[in-house]
Amino acid sequence: GSFIGEFPPLLAPSCPLDPFYFPISGVMIPRSPQRVPDPAVHCRGLPRNLRRATAVTSEIRSRLSAVSEILGRVRIASSYETQCLRLAELESQMAEGDFWNDRESAEKTIQELKRVKETVTNIDEIEKRLGDAEALLDLAKTEQDHDSKTEAASESRQLLAQVERLELRTLLSGRHDVSNAYLSIHAGAGGTEACDWVSMLRRMFLRWAEINGFGSEVIEELSGDETGFKTFTARIIGAYAYGYLRAETGVHRLVRVSPFDAQARRHTTFASVHASPEVDDVDIEISESDLRVDTYRASGAGGQHVNTTDSAVRITHLPTGIVVQCQNQRSQHANRAQAMLVLQSRLTEFEEKKREEEMAKLSGERSEIAFGSQIRSYVLHPYKMVKDHRTDHETGNVDATLDGELQPFIEEWLRQQAQGGGN
């Protein structure tokens, strides 16, 4: 019988090579084009695999292209060529025989060398890895090597994350952004609840410092009447500590059912946070006549000598009203020296703010001062959410935020500032 109408199942080709002729017992029999089995049906596996492979390759190339684009912006923003010249100049200075004659100058040179070298090395490393990843992807395509493509995909993800972090670092280009920071927290109205909120913020920022590789040193903490702290000041040590922490200056708001309320009512509590840079080259003269110095007995835990003498020091700068205090050192002299460093830091930041406001007025812009304004809310009841009111960045994972996961909020604020928006 004729098979022109229908083919026996076992003889029907699974993947026809010719749309009009099919081999049956060695005889080529013409077929109507309408009767040709659809390759999309009979060869569905192969086209889908090809489409998937193409999509993966396209995705990898897209990520590598994004890496290249961001790296170009980083090179421009960081003045890469100038940094390379500066690196060679600093290395030449270190090679001179009299380099260590002025130890203080030598240490500053070494610190600058570390920063410049880190910038240049980071860019060079990403550039090299980007070239290697592109070559690996080309090899995977040419040799149809699945392992090479998998490796290229993994490398592209890592590179994109690394270059995005590097771009964020270039946003920290302020005069003092690279400096260590002094972080102060003050309780608002609310008594015990406010002091407990300061304690929670204290832990949050110290955890943030630990997670991100910064050191910390407690300068002063004044315990609350029942629990927590009325005030807290710490020195955060590490490159760009101030650049990051200046994003946290402002009023932080807590909404929760107070554990100190016997009727379990919801309370709203405030605490102010202030970050200022630690400065080495101080160009601000502080007159002794502008200072009021008070001494008092240190409170809280301390050694045998700390709590038995008036070793704690409070300094008020009368022209600006800025108040700093230190009680954690063993002697009044050491506490005064530390308090003066904090005061210099606060005055430097005060002058920077004043200059920014004057420039904004000259350019016709209206600028709001972040300190004293509510910047972020931490809601624990009736729902859980942390929301930054400047950037609208928010998360429902309140526990993680209070455990130091602040970087997403900080990075979003820095990006907004780089784009010229926000407060």
Mean of residue pLDDT values: 82
| Sheet of most strands | 8 strands, mixed
Could you give the order of the helices and strands?
A: EEHHHHHEHEEHEEEEEHEEEHH
Strand order of the largest sheet: 4-5-3-7-6-11-12-13
State the helical fraction. Answer: 40-55%
Based on helices, strands and strand pairing, what is the structural class?
alpha+beta
The general outline is flat
Q: Count of helices? A: 10
Radius of gyration equals 32 Å
Strand content: 15-25%
What is the total tally of β strands? 13
Low-confidence sequence ranges: 1-46, 302-306, 362-372
State the end-to-end CA separation.
86 Å
Task: Explain how this protein is built.
There is one protein chain. With 423 residues, the protein is an alpha+beta fold. The chain contains 10 helices and 13 strands. The chain has an 8-stranded mixed β-sheet with strand order 4-5-3-7-6-11-12-13. A 3-stranded antiparallel β-sheet has the order 8-9-10, covered by helices on one side. The chain has a two-stranded antiparallel sheet with strand order 1-2. A hairpin with a 2-residue loop joins strand 1 and strand 2 (27-30). Helix 2 packs antiparallel against helix 4 (103-143) and helix 2 runs parallel beside helix 5. The protein is flat. The model is unreliable at 1-46, 302-306 and 362-372 (pLDDT under 50).
